[in-house]
Amino acid sequence: DVQLVESGGGSVQPGGSLRLSCKVSRVTFSSACLGWFRQAPDKEREAVASISKDDVPTYATSVQGRFRISEDTAKNTLDLQMDSLTPDDTAMYYCAAGHLIMCTAFAIPSFPDRGQGTQVTVS
Length: 123
Hints:
The protein is 0% helix and 50% strand. It has strands at residues 3-7, 10-12, 18-25, 32-39, 46-52, 58-59, 67-72, 77-82, 91-99, 113-114, 118-122. The strands form two sheets. Strands 2, 4, 5, 6, 9, 10 and 11 form a seven-stranded mixed β-sheet that branches. The chain has a four-stranded antiparallel β-sheet with strand order 1-3-8-7, with no helix packed on it. The protein starts with a strand and ends with a strand.
């Protein structure tokens, strides 16, 4: 079974930075779409960023220019560098994996596999 384990969440002041990491197991990077989504209390899940082997990374408008997604196939990790954080970025962040074709729709919250999440608090 696919395993996704997030780490790196925490509390930070507005304007600060955090780097999330997801340890990815039993996923073939060359045929997968990997991404991050988040969910704040009383809000719907929101796709944040996605990446695949052949595609340019895709970002939600709300994080464009501030977040950067990257994957390291040698270490089997998916990272999310988050800069210039604001209170609106406060949420539980989840790493998710789906088939390569799923990158087109950017429907990351619907991906079949996801981790347990890591909390990010900006205040």
